[in-house]
Design brief:
The protein is mainly beta. The strands form 13 sheets. Strands 17, 18, 19, 20, 22, 45, 48, 49 and 50 form a 9-stranded mixed beta sheet that branches. Strand 10 and strand 11 (about 190) form a beta hairpin. The radius of gyration is 37 Å and the shape is flat. Residues about 1-40, about 45-85 and about 430-500 have low confidence and may be disordered.
Length: about 775
């Protein structure tokens, strides 16, 4: 493959942009119109840098030193010799990420499509210190967690610019154009200027620590979990908003972990066993985690801070049990990644694969959700160490800050290795810096089937090989000779171990099943048995009366069963039994628990009516599309006095006050969680438009009073005799008795009406209600409170 830097515009590798230093320098000179010795010196320096880029010595360029010496003679001391291509114009890939190296005190930028390091920055005074880097905002910030020093990286110059010093033990968070420092112990949030690195305003005290790890969404809203209060506090536009309740009351603080799922805030209560979507105005859908997650020891449940899609992985690292929560569909998948001899780190999802770091040997365990099985692991360092995983630009980045090597993985599973300690890259470091030694000269091979990187095998799952594939596949080591000059003997074929060749191989169980919850159904997938091929498979563990499709599957699959039936309030686990031609049956391990339901969505098409006389609300709604028989509903916001069968899509609310506005919340829930709620605003009023009646044209007008009496109050106006305009009648009330001048009807009922921007009263004798001639309250008009 030709060198991308020397290829034409049409043949460039995407994301790997060539450096044309001389052309850029000439164009810049022409634009600035500079001349004289300064311009000549700058052009010579640029020529030297370009020549060094083109002819720097390596195994193929023995003449490089001669060419370089010629250029040096021309430009004198213009070439600065340092660690890396100091002073070279940086050209960082658009698809890339920054990776820290605590041992060298550097941050390296790598091309995500090739793994090549295309720029490095020296972090002064940060060697051998744990650092965190924020690159999700508009700027790149680095925090020394030991000293509290915060610096900004200038990618265009590969230098460290502004810096400020804060306290120790802080968390650096950025998103959009906002950046924050969170003190989890003192429970304070300090907004900072991401360019100047200086504080903006006074710190905000959240009052109850310690805080959980915060995240900032793409709009810059900070989300801070406060476990002691069971709340999450948002900071929209950098300002504190009211906390959102996400955990119930408990004698011990909740354990809250924030995640950005495709940019949307999600909080996992590992103690309470829930995953909740958040909005600035409150909480949304809530999903229940299976028992094998909720019963895990405190601190042993791992959830990533961000995922590229809707799926949030929740791993109980001690048991190796994992739940995959789809925050859009509400479905939940349970899986098993193995539990022995592993020190798992926080998992991450990319495409259909879940990558689980095994920090005991520096590898990634790969769980393929489509195959429901563990596939070939990926070697990162091959050594014990903490691995941090994050997804950026659709690529999975894996870094060990204490190791020279990182990896970047694309959605198809291809691995590119990143050599962070490379010195042959642009760098903004000054000369005479005492650099720590980097790589020892050895390089991991490019990805391919013959890569000689041995990796210790982890435990293999049934039907799957746990040894590395691709660039990490182990190769046989050549034999050694103890004496110089002696030929290396050809290794002899080892004697077969185990049963005799004539003895049939022992039947193997299928892989541990993966159970996925659905609306009224549970889908169970599994990996087929390895070795001897069975005659078929059967599912075991289905609830009584449930229908299993298919009842039996053949040796060639499909390796999926569907279970229709069961109760949403219960969790079910499954095994798969392989049947062999000799009558033997071998059963798989047990799946994680699953329910035949998903968390329902919000109720739809809410309608309401009022009973006669008001003082109540009759509600009806439609069930969510994915609601099953186990769905129940809660209605809040209108007092406790209500006749509400929680399984019906209706509610009767009573003993309310007329002429008030109620915000009624209707929420659906089942055994899998609670769906999104809908808020219906109800104005409990019943204003009617009624025409004036029996206003005889006798020369006497009809008075409109400020009170329901002619004995007190004031006269607000009148309706001329003979006229019958329409009135807005609000309600009726008892007042002083009145008599109709012409018909001699009597009534003490008065109507409260809308009048000239306010309210007033008129005797019901002159309003055309149904009972105005009888002196009684009318059924179509409510009584005033």
């Amino acid at each position: 493959m030709p060198d991308a830097r020397g290829s034409s515009e049409e043949s460039r590798t995407p994301g790997l942009r060539p450096r044309r230093l001389v052309d850029e320098t000439k164009e810049a000179d022409q634009e600035r119109g500079r001349g004289g010795f300064a311009a000549l010196k700058e052009r010579c320096a640029a020529l030297a840098r370009s020549a060094w880029t083109a002819v720097r010595p390596n195994r193929r360029r023995a003449t490089g030193y001669i060419a370089l010496a010629s250029v040096s003679a021309l430009v004198g001391t213009s070439v600065v010799v340092g660690s890396g291509k100091a002073g070279a114009v940086p050209d960082l890939a658009d698809v890339g990420a920054w990776l820290t190296s605590s041992r060298t005190g550097e941050a390296a930028h790598a091309n995500g499509l090739t793994g090549d390091v295309d720029g490095k920055v020296k972090l002064p005074g940060m060697g051998d210190h744990p650092v965190s880097i924020a690159q999700d905002g508009k700027t790149v910030l680095v925090l020394d967690e030991k000293t509290g020093k915060l610096v900004r990286i200038d990618p265009s110059q590969l230098t460290v610019e502004q810096s400020s010093r804060y306290g120790t033990g802080l968390q650096l968070v950025s998103g959009g154009r906002y950046a924050y420092l969170v003190d989890p112990v003192k429970a304070r949030v300090q907004r900072i200027d991401p360019v100047r690195t200086t504080p903006i305003g006074a710190p905000v005290d959240l009052g109850s620590g310690p805080l959980g790890k915060a995240v900032a969404d793409p709009k810059g809203t900070l989300w801070v979990p406060v476990p002691g209060k069971g709340t999450v506090v948002p900071f929209p536009h950098g300002k504190k908003a009211p906390g959102i309740k996400v955990a119930g009351k408990s004698s011990k603080p909740a354990t809250l972990v924030m995640t950005l799922a495709d940019g949307r805030p999600v909080v996992t209560d590992t103690k309470g066993g829930t995953v909740t979507l958040l909005k600035r105005t409150g909480s949304g859908m809530r999903f229940k985690l299976p028992d094998n997650i909720t019963k895990a020891p405190t601190g042993s449940v791992l959830v990533p801070a961000a995922t590229a899609g809707d799926v949030v992985p929740v791993l109980a690292k001690n048991s190796g049990r994992m739940a995959l929560v789809n925050t859009r569909t509400g479905s939940l998948t349970t899986a098993f990644v193995g539990s022995s001899n592993h020190e798992y780190g926080t998992p991450q999802v990319l495409g259909s694969k879940v990558y689980v770091p095994d920090e005991s040997n520096g590898t990634l365990k790969v769980y393929d959700t489509e195959e429901a099985a563990i596939t070939k692991p990926v070697k990162v360092t091959g050594k014990p160490g903490k691995l941090s995983l994050f997804v950026r630009d659709g690529l999975l980045w894996v870094n060990d800050a204490d190791n020279a090597t990182a990896v970047v993985i694309n959605s198809s599973g291809r691995v590119n290795r990143v050599h962070k300690y490379d010195t042959d890259v642009p760098s903004g470091r000054k000369p005479k810096e005492n650099d720590r030694p980097g790589d020892d000269g050895s390089r991991d091979p490019a990805p391919g089937p013959e890569a000689p990187n041995p990796l210790p095998e982890g435990p293999s799952g049934p039907g799957r090989d746990d040894t590395p594939s691709g660039p990490d596949a182990p190769a046989e080591k050549p034999g050694r000779s103890d004496k110089p000059g002696k030929p290396v003997p050809k290794p002899k074929d080892p004697k077969p171990s185990g049963p005799d060749e004539d003895e049939p191989a022992k039947p193997q169980p299928p892989g541990v099943p993966q159970a996925e919850s659905g609306s009224g159904v549970i889908r169970v997938s599994f990996a087929p048995s390895s070795g001897v091929k069975p005659t078929g498979y059967r599912l075991k563990g289905a609830p009584p009366g449930a229908e299993v499709k298919p009842g039996r599957t053949g040796p060639g699959g499909p390796f999926t069963f569907e279970v229709n039936g069961g109760s949403c309030d219960q969790q079910y686990t499954f095994t798969v039994e392989a049947e062999f031609s000799d009558g033997q049956k071998v059963e798989s391990g047990r799946s994680g628990p699953a329910r035949p339901c998903v968390a329902p969505g919000q109720p739809q098409n809410v309608k309401y009516t009022f009973p006669q006389g008001g003082k109540g609300i009759d509600l009806t709604w439609q069930a969510p599309a994915n609601a099953g028989n186990g769905t129940t509903y809660t209605v809040t916001g209108a007092g406790p006095d209500q006749d509400n069968n929680p399984r019906n899509t209706q509610a009767t609310l009573r003993n309310l006050r007329n002429f008030q506005t109620y915000n009624v919340t209707i929420a659906a829930k089942n055994g899998a969680g609670s769906g999104g709620s809908v808020v219906q605003q109800v104005n409990l009023s019943n204003t009617k438009t009624i025409r004036v009646a029996d206003n005889v044209n006798d020369g006497d007008d009809v008075g409109v009073r400020s009170e329901p009496t002619t004995q007190g109050g004031t006269r607000r106006g009148s309706i001329p005799a003979g006229q019958t305009p329409e009135l807005k009648v609000i309600c009726q009330v008892k007042g002083s008795p009145e008599e109709h001048d012409t018909h001699k009807w009597k009534s003490d009922v008065w109507d409260r009406i809308e009048w000239e921007g306010g309210t007033a009263y008129i005797s019901d004798l002159w309003v055309g209600t149904s009972n105005h001639r009888e002196g009684k309250f009318s059924p179509e008009v409510w009584q005033c409170d």
